[in-house]
Amino acid sequence: MESAQGLKSRLHSISSTRQITRSMQMIASTKVQKTLRRMQQNAPYVERFDDIIRNVMRFAFHTRHRYIAPPDAGCSAIIAVSGNRGLCGAYNVNVCRETVSQIRRMNRDVRCVTVGRKIRDHLGRRKYIVERAFDGASESPFYETARDAGKIALELYEKGAVDSIFIVYTRYESALSLLPFTKQILPLGVSDQSGRDPRGRQMSFEPGLDDALDHVVPLYLSACVYGAMLNAAACEQSARIVSMDAASRNCADMYERLSLRYNRLRQSSITQELNEIVGGAEALLSTEEG
Asked: What residues form DSSP beta bridges with 168?
């Protein structure tokens, strides 16, 4: 049977753990609000780039640019975004599972660029090729990291080492809806409304369409990677809030159960001591009377 001192030590440990989980929950709440504000500020930039790409692709049906029709390389590039740390539920597991699922579905060679230690370690254990790993940018994304990650994948594409680029990340829908998502960036798909504009406009390119694509697509790739990193950071902190809230409730329930056991054990000990005192007093009294 566990001693009162052992139960008291466990109660102290659980109380300390609960303080830590509640603190982590509050920190994650602050971080997710900051990240959501950055997402809102970045959203118009990404949406505008999407509009530009869609408009350009309406008039790109006649070009054989490498960003539209690359030579077959038999290999793809994946930029995968995860967290650096755990204690965030199934967030890292889900994005790692989505990445491996995409690799297997492609059924071809894949070269990876990772953002976050968890996905780097997961792919490394499975012997996949990791071209470059960025480990310190999962919770506080910076555009420079997104630009560098996109540049590595784009260099592989332009050298002909890969013929497609994908981004795997967790898309933020709401605090309780965190969905692993895969987005193809390159090659660009020609619009089904090629050569037509809803308002009858014509688009001219100076100095030319190929030059426009050379300039716009690297910026578009960086914007997409940065948007993915912001989404992933918000998802990681939201998952951590839920996980730490559940941990705090579990600590409270465990503390309550152990407190009841401790009080019962303490009461039993006190009762036993009282019985011993009363028994000793009665023995002394009977000895004196005898």
From this structure: 80, 182
Name the token pair of 148: 């560098």
Give the residue, 68 or 61, on which the prediction is more confident.
Answer: 68
Distances (CA, A) of 269 to 61, 110, 264, 282, 290: 87, 67, 9, 20, 31
Point out which residues pair with 181 in neighbouring strands. 169
Residue-wise pLDDT tens digits, 71-81: 888 899 999 99
The token pair at 265 is: 């054990």
Question: pLDDT tens across 216-249, in order?
Answer: 889 999 999 999 999 999 999 999 998 899 988 8
230's tokens: 């912001």
Question: 284: which 2 tokens?
Answer: 């002394």
Bridge-partner residues for 79, per DSSP?
113, 167
> How many residues belong to the chain?
290
- Domains, the chain, ordered by start: 4-22+246-285 (1.10.287), 34-244 (3.40.1380.10)
Give residue for tokens 């014509």. 202
